[in-house]
Amino acid sequence: MTKKEAIDLGGMRLAPYSPCVSVKDHIWVAALKEQAAKSLEKIDGLLAEANSSKADLVMVTVLLTDMADFGDFNEVYGAWLEGTILPARAAFAVRELPGGALVEIVAEAFRGSGSTE
Fold first, then answer.
1. 62: β partners
2. Poorest-confidence range of 25-29, 81-85, 86-90?
3. What does pTM read for this prediction?
4. Which value, in Å, is the radius of gyration of the alpha carbons in the chain?
5. Could you please report the per-residue DSSP string of 28-97?
6. Is there a domain that residue 57 lies in?
7. Which of 2, 28, 40, 84 is the most buried (most CB within 10 A)?
8. CA atoms lying within 13 Å on the CB side of residue 34
9. What is the pLDDT of residues 41-69, one digit of tens each?
């Protein structure tokens, strides 16, 4: 039997959700912060707690409140993923995000898939 596990680094949440859920080797992560670097840092921490890393990412969905920020986001995001096989990605403009955030990132990983061994 495969069991669903919630992973949380603590901190305030604006709604009832788990910031990270793991089922077997499949991991879903959501990070909602005002700045991209903080969101990506949170994803690093959640993936580490799930015994994974950004190298295991297979899909990332980005929600931005202003597509004018897309270039700046890509600069931070690209540097963060340097040295990995880049995951698939979708980016969408949304009218607003909870808590006045400018970006929300939802990521999906398969534990061990990014290993170079």
1. 91, 105
2. 25-29
3. 0.86
4. 14
5. EEEEEESSHHHHHHHHHHHHHHTT--GGGEEEEEEEES-GGGHHHHHHHHHHHTTTSPPPEEEEEE-S--
6. yes
7. 40
8. 2
9. 999 999 999 999 999 999 999 999 999 99
What pLDDT band is residue 75 in, cutting at 50, 70 and 90?
Answer: very high
**32/106 Cα distance (integer angstroms):** 9
Q: Are 55 and 89 in contact (CB under 8 A)?
A: no
Give CA torsion, residues 69, 65, 100, 82, to 10 deg: -50
- Say which CATH number the domain at 61 has: 3.30.1330.40
Instruction: Print burial letters for 13-46: b (CB count within 10 Å at least 16), e (below 16).
Output: eeeeebbbbbeeebbbbbbbbeebeebbebbebb
What is the rounded CA–CA span in Å between residue 92 and residue 9?
Answer: 26
